[in-house]
Amino acid sequence: MLKRLWFLFAQCITILLAVWFIVTTLKPGWLNGVQIHSLVDKVTLKESDVDSQSINPGSYHEAVKRSMPAVVNIFSSKAQAKIKPHKGNGADGANPNDLFYKFFFGDQPPEEEPISSLGSGVIVSPEGIILTNHHVIDGADDIDIALADGRKFKAKIIGSDPDTDVAVLKIEAKQLPTPITLGQIESVRVGDVVLAIGNPFGVGQTVTSGIVSALGRDHLGINTFENFIQTDAAINPGNSGGALVDTRGNLIGINTAIFSNSGGSMGIGFAIPINLAKQVMESILTNGSVTRGWIGVEPQNLSKELSESLGLPATTEGVLLSGVLEGGPADRGGAKPGDVLTYVNDQGVKDVTGLLNRIAQFGPGDAVILKVLRKGKEVTLTVQIGKRPKAVKRG
């Protein structure tokens, strides 16, 4: 009998303890004033009284809010047969030994499947005009645009310019996000804070921040015509064609490439300045392509040793015309192989890049005055500018 009573007593205590534990855990208010001692009672927390609707000091939220809806994701597919053999493990099929990478997203799938790449673009007009990089859509059979609100549309290519890596797309859609506001490149200064917006690695829209590290970067060997904004804002695979904006949310550049030993961001990224991108876009919208001047020469940078071999002072500035296209504009104007081109319309020429950029500014039919050194004597030539052929590296 005693054992039975003891057993009932133990069961009752066990049940009461279980009930107590459940109530104190889930419904402590049921205890009606019974003191519950826990760690929370012994900790004092200080909570902020800041209005949750206010903007934190130094935040770039307003700039991002203005510009991010206009940044889109671009999905383009290409038939496997049109893709060059994979040269390494760098993004965009780039050789990992190369230091410059133009990025889209994704590894190459099996040969029987199409290749899908992912990049970014920027809506610049309510008519559905989108700026992006040429290398994002190059050779694409099908292009899809995904807006920030999740809607997707088919895009058509209005035109592209491989020499500057700019492409113009168009989508037919109603109630598009507010187009981004184009900035003024003249207002951009080294040291200004900038934001890079895109879709890196396909994770979704992402914003990174940095500063303008340099302006007017060229001689990089990325594009034929170069005038890059350099920034340390992180630019990764999928950011190509995305927006580089200032702290007002205005578009100042189109992200295009990074300097890297591995393919990942190392704090040196490059964007096409908005004035150049706008110029190319307007030419494409007007003519369907970009028309640049051309004189038909094979220029070569003039080194100290080369100057001496030509009997010129070592300080001579200009470019050697190592070749002149027979029947081309320069040939018709009297230029000869071996001439050293020093001036174009009284503006000095220092190197090949400078010559290409200078000649490209003229339109077909324009007449320019060239000054060349020929056997140590200065000769003045009048050359009528021709139309630059596609995919030409000569001046």
Verbal overview:
The protein is an alpha+beta fold and 395 residues long. The protein has two domains: 61-287, Thrombin, subunit H (Beta Barrel); 293-387, Pdz3 Domain. The protein has seven helices and 21 strands. The strands form four sheets. A six-stranded antiparallel β-barrel has the order 1-3-4-7-6-5. A six-stranded antiparallel β-barrel has the order 8-9-10-13-12-11. 37% of the residues are buried.
Layout of secondary structure:
Layout: H1 2-26, H2 61-67, E1 71-78, E2 100-101, E3 115-123, E4 129-132, H3 134-137, E5 142-146, E6 152-161, E7 166-171, E8 193-198, E9 206-217, E10 228-231, E11 243-245, E12 251-259, E13 269-273, H4 274-287, E14 293-294, E15 297-301, H5 304-309, E16 319-324, H6 329-332, E17 340-344, E18 347-348, H7 352-360, E19 367-374, E20 377-384, E21 386-387
Antiparallel strand pairs: 1-3, 1-5, 2-12, 3-4, 4-7, 5-6, 6-7, 8-9, 8-11, 9-10, 10-13, 11-12, 12-13, 14-21, 15-16, 16-17, 17-18, 17-19, 19-20
CATH class descriptor name of the largest domain: Mainly Beta
CATH fold group of the largest domain: Thrombin, subunit H
- Major sheet details: 6 strands, antiparallel, barrel
Q: Give the DSSP E fraction (strand runs of 2 or more residues).
A: 25-35%
Assigned CATH architecture of the largest domain: Beta Barrel
Compute the CA-based radius of gyration.
Answer: 32 Å
Total domains: 2
Average pLDDT over all residues: 81
Low-confidence stretches: 81-97, 103-112
Helix/sheet category: alpha+beta
Strand order in space, largest sheet: 1-3-4-7-6-5
The CA-CA distance between the termini, in Å, is 113 Å
